[in-house]
């Protein structure tokens, strides 16, 4: 390839920013389109565990591993699994292996953003359409602070999540409902305001599972706890409750009703939560999702292989996708054949993601079985015995 390819990344999530950083390190300029108005416009969610063989590997290649170690929390791997009465079925504290430390999403994003040129991300810019031109290049029509704009690229990477604006140029497949919906809650300043909850959750995660419902509490690095109250229900169930989830009393009233069989100490996980409560139906792709390759455009992360969070693989896969795409671009720069290199990436990514999607779907079933947490813990301990650590 005699000239540098014009590369666009749609979406400034962990996968998109990792790709932008890797391309920057390899001296390939790119443009990142992000509809959020600025980097501090929303909280970015809770924490995640980065795996040594995927997410951490991408950060090593990006030259950001020391920055990652400075924000990583190995104690975040602590975990308790209990039933609705608080009876503990599994407890892991001070584990010897800490190759999957937790990191707050906002801190990871800041590390990635701080490593990029200020002009790399076009904030407040929404992609309106992605189309193929007559000469087979890809045109992005976007709308930003300066109005409508049109740009031509040699490669467009959709890193824009579940409802990707890039994906329709490759496939008509849309996410389908996973059978799970959740309410997302947060307890800030937990150790000073709600010390008992803080002690129960500890330094990592606390899971209470029973009868197709679960409460998942996750310690974050800013002295807060993120709580997910999950239900196995129809897609429209939350909407049909008639509850206004912006009304704290209504939302907590619904939770009190649905989790009335859970111990009072477990109900405190939502009763002590702050007023900002968000309803989230969870979506996924078929576990064998693919598309027919088309020149000049590809996908990574949730845009490519959306799955539920029950295997902890989403961001790790997105960052590994980013590493593989950056290597494909670098290979094409020296050997030619960008289209062939991206095709090879997609084939590798499909194989990798299908395994994780199958695992995630299997784990979802274990979380919401009638006898949970027994089935979940039994499977978890079996995997630890076989492989010396938690299931990936």
Instruction: Note the total helix count.
Output: 13
Quaternary status: single chain
Adjacency order of strands in the biggest sheet = 5-4-13-14-15-12-16
Radius of gyration, whole Å = 21 Å
Main pleated sheet? 7 strands, mixed
What is the helix content?
25-40%
Total strands: the figure is 17
Give the mean pLDDT.
93
Low-confidence runs? none
Provide the β-strand percentage band: 15-25%
Order of helices and strands: EHEEHHEEEHEEEEEEHHEEEHHHEEHHHH
Alpha-beta content class: alpha/beta
Shape: globular
* Straight-line N-to-C gap: 38 Å
Report on this model:
There is one protein chain. With 392 residues, this protein is an alpha/beta fold. The protein contains 13 helices and 17 strands. β1, α1 and β2 form a beta-alpha-beta unit. The mean pLDDT is 93.
